[in-house]
Write a structure and sequence with these properties.
The complex is a heterodimer of chains A (165) and B (127). Chain A has two domains: 86 residues, Rna Polymerase Sigma Factor, Chain: A (Orthogonal Bundle), CATH 1.10.1740; 77 residues, Arc Repressor Mutant, subunit A (Orthogonal Bundle). Chain A has nine helices and no strands. Chain A is an all-alpha fold and 165 residues long. Chain B has 127 residues and is mostly helical. Helices cover 63% and strands 0% of the residues of chain B. Chain B is rod-shaped and about 155 Å long. The chains are: A mainly alpha (165), B mainly alpha (127). Chains A and B meet through helix 1, helix 2, helix 3, helix 7 and helix 9 of A and helix 1 and helix 2 of B.
């Protein structure tokens, strides 16, 4: 199997987490576009990054922020509506948590805390990699992650207060 | 999966519970991404070749023009004439010039300072 095929497969396996990460700033369609572009950029790299998944999260992070900044006020309003329109998680009987409740709990987190949780849990990145992507110290990332988990636990234990409108 | 990062068992349990949720399937097209990457890389090569061709053209034009300019600057005969012109004219007292002057104009043509003064002789000078 060629390197490009291996890279592509690696990214496609994690595409759900990457799109979920991009959705912290963008609607579902734009988030998929950003991930698609990041994959294209990864395949164009002359030298394979040491950690392609961390590279992808960094690329998606930068592109998603740029894309969100360049959007007009009207488009941002549309995106806000669109963000609410499509869910973040598949509903499955195998899941230990209710998808909608978990999504509502995640949405309540401060933005940076939520980004850390998404990269850590669905991106399977280490705290050091997350710290590098977010340009924060590892200590700060660790503190925020633990704080985010505590807030999530609280929200999941009291789901009635966190129902989305 | 990832390092433990000093999490408590409760936090680990919550992590695993959250991880049991699958993000909505992403519609990523790897073939389209590979195609786009190849096409853009091709464009890069085309730009590279174009840039190289333009550079070679400029170098060729430069090398064609440079010798012509050198020839214009380094013409030896152009420098020899001023060198001759700078030589001092022969002195008016030189034998050649005096001979020519006498042949052409006679004794009157000689410069005044070259004609010896006529000495007036008096009797007491002789005796």
């Amino acid at each position: 199997m060629s390197d490009l095929n291996r890279l592509t497969e690696m990214v496609v396996e994690r595409a759900g987490g990457l799109v979920l990460y991009a959705r912290q700033w963008l609607d579902a369609a734009s988030a998929e576009d950003v991930v698609q572009e990041a994959l294209t950029a990864l395949l164009m790299e002359r030298r394979e990054p040491d950690n392609p998944i961390a590279w992808m999260y960094r690329a998606v992070h930068n592109s998603a922020i740029d894309s969100a900044r360049s959007a007009s006020r009207r488009r941002r309003r549309e995106q806000t509506v669109a963000l609410m329109r499509r869910e973040w998680f598949e509903s499955s009987a195998d899941s230990a948590l209710d998808a909608q409740v978990a999504e509502a709990a995640l949405r309540q987190l401060p933005d940076e805390y939520r980004q850390i949780v998404v990269m850590r849990i669905w991106g399977e990145l280490g705290l050091a990699q997350i710290a590098e992507i977010m340009q924060l110290s590892i200590t700060t990332v660790r503190e925020r992650y633990i704080s985010a988990l505590a807030q999530l636990r609280s929200a999941l234990e009291n789901p009635c207060r966190n129902k989305m409108d | 999966m990832q390092e433990q990062d000093g999490l408590t068992p409760g936090e680990r349990e919550l992590e695993l519970a959250m991880k049991s949720l699958s993000p909505i399937a992403a519609r990523i097209d790897p073939i389209a991404a590979a195609f786009a990457a190849g096409r853009r890389s091709g464009h890069k090569h085309i730009y590279l070749w174009r840039a190289t061709a333009v550079l070679m053209l400029l170098v060729g034009a430069g090398s064609w023009l440079a010798p012509a300019r050198r020839n214009v600057v380094v013409q030896p005969h152009e420098f020899s004439e001023p060198a001759v012109a700078l030589q001092p004219p022969p002195a008016a007292e030189s034998l050649q010039v005096l001979q020519r002057t006498v042949l052409e104009k006679g004794l009157d043509g000689l410069p005044a300072e070259n004609i010896p003064a006529v000495r007036v002789l008096r009797a007491e000078d002789i005796f």
